[in-house]
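Subject: Protein record for review, amino acid sequence with backbone structure tokens
How to read it: Take the token row as a discrete description of the fold.
Enclosed: The protein record, placed directly beneath this head.
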Amino acid sequence: MTTIEQSYRETIGRLIVLAGATFLVGTNAFVIAGLLPRIAGSLHATEGAVSYTVTAYALVVALAAPAIAVLLPRTRPRVLMAAGALLFAAGAAITALATGVEWFTVGRVVAAFGGAALVPTATAVAAQLGPAERRGRSLAIVGAGFTLATALGAPLGTALGSVVGWRTPLWILAACGLVWAAPLLALFRLPARGGSATLRERFAPLADARVVLTLGAVVLTVAAFNIVYIFSAAVSAPATDGSGAQLATLLLVYGAAGVVGNAIAGGLTDRLGSRAAAVSALAVQLVCLVAIAPLESSYIGLLVAFAAWGAAAFAITIPIQHRLVSLAPESAGFTMSWFSTAMYLGIAIAPPLGNVADAVGGAVLIPIAGAVATAAAVLMFLSGYRRRPARTLADAGQQTA
């Protein structure tokens, strides 16, 4: 085996470890959607009330991710990731023990701090592990953790929760978080992200209008996805008649198609560029969400629509991440922390938007709301290509230091 081959295998192995970490965080986030009716019944709360714990979780991550980058600049990535995994495990355990919405929310908040430390750090590390020409593929491997969380984690958690109770999947996640902290601490001996950077330098990416517009597109894209996914039980109820098994199958098909979309996205982004790859995927998502509304009573129709939507939805993230990293490779860690913030802001606004759509027009209006958000995301993403920064990121840091 040549030195290059050995180095490549080691890189792939480390990327898989990072993907495993994002799988755990993603499963913890996505499994709530399938278990929402059971959790609400167990906690003697409405589904709407429980859905707002998703907002609390997301807001904490949105605020904590950049705060961690600012307050802990000298902390090595491996320490941040391992600590994040342990906090995630603690939060999942607290959630599993909850007897009311209040403690359920506390557990979600603790897990959110763990995700805020782990996910943006893992994404930034992934971008550093391989050569620039393989950056899209590296990001795709780590992104596959979220895809597999949707393809396997959430459906299996939904199915398991429907048989033995919703707490069991959370206990399993807590145990896995404890175990995963060890390889995160041992395998990534990279230097700290930049201890000499000032607070204003960390905000420097936001001086670039292209970055801000791309982050805005992230908020809208993630909101569009979660408006429908979080309320998938309500959206699909006319076709599933409330069957947990049928809902789990629907989510499994969605996630399996997402694996394909994620796998294709990295290569397409490297070959076609981030703009063509992202806009194509967003266009497919838009069509699928519009189609879900008239298909709400057809289980076969929903299976087809969810499959196409899954492939598109998980093909979107990679080119957007690639776009952000390419705008300022030297400050990828800071930019990706803002990406995480934007992503979780999108998650945070999804429950209120979904509840409003449901109140105004019933569950059939929920996917239409997602389609509108997707259309707005396309416009904002393309606007970023028509802007030029008034100054470079480096200049922004120097002038504001």
Summary: The two ends are 48 Å apart (CA to CA). The chain has 15 helices and no strands. Residues 392-401 have pLDDT under 50 and may be disordered.
